[in-house]
């Protein structure tokens, strides 16, 4: 059976402040049911790519000046982020962005704001999120600002799940977290992918971990895709080993 392409980014160029060319023609596909990794070092353009997709560049004075972005075959470039959420695409930003003064549970409930299917379903989904993240259930009444970095990352993913997304754009989930927590979070991402059918586009500097959990990877360097392939192949590629996995 043919795999459906959910997200199709075709040759996009992004310019900040009308002069700084940051993405120089990036193309990538996110298939339904996959975990697709967007890899590359600091400043390669991963965050910019995700923000271009979810239309979050404007507040940074950034603009897509070339190329196209389609979701399920429809152009989404001019949608605002809330409309994109309605279509099933949500971004979890780097640095977590939970509301510090709200409790974990209140944070999760803010993720359901675009839903129109009633309180009962929202309550069911809260239980679903707590099923995947038992730590959040334990900390449900704590102010998010007082929880750990790992719990805040879980809260951010949990909140995204409350919108019942088809695709999550996940920016650097490993950032600042101890290796064991990174494993735990990636394990949950994998479960969500396999059991709930959520598709992921995952931006990561941690190539090693990302390629163990993803199905396919794109490697960005200075705003260009320099290599892409099945995760298993990239893991065995000599250049990837030398430059990104620290082995040679
Ligand atoms: P990181 O892991 O640091 O987020 P990244 O691969 O996600 O890296 P981007 O954040 O997309 O990279 O940044 C790509 C380039 O664009 C960098 O050179 C950065 O300095 C530049 N850049 C990012 N945001 C802006 C902005 N608002 N204005 C001007 N330049 C920017």
From TrEMBL:
Organism field: Oceaniovalibus guishaninsula JLT2003
Domain of life: Bacteria
Family the UniProt entry places it in: Belongs to the ABC transporter superfamily.
Protein name stated in the entry: ABC transporter related protein
Keyword line: Amino-acid transport, ATP-binding, Nucleotide-binding, Transport
Keyword Transport in record: yes
Keyword Zinc-finger: no
A molecular-function term among this protein's GO annotations: ATP binding
InterPro entries in UniProt: AAA+_ATPase, ABC_transporter-like_ATP-bd, BCAA_Transport_ATP-bd_LivF, P-loop_NTPase
Domain ABC transporter: 7-247
One Gene Ontology biological process: L-amino acid transport
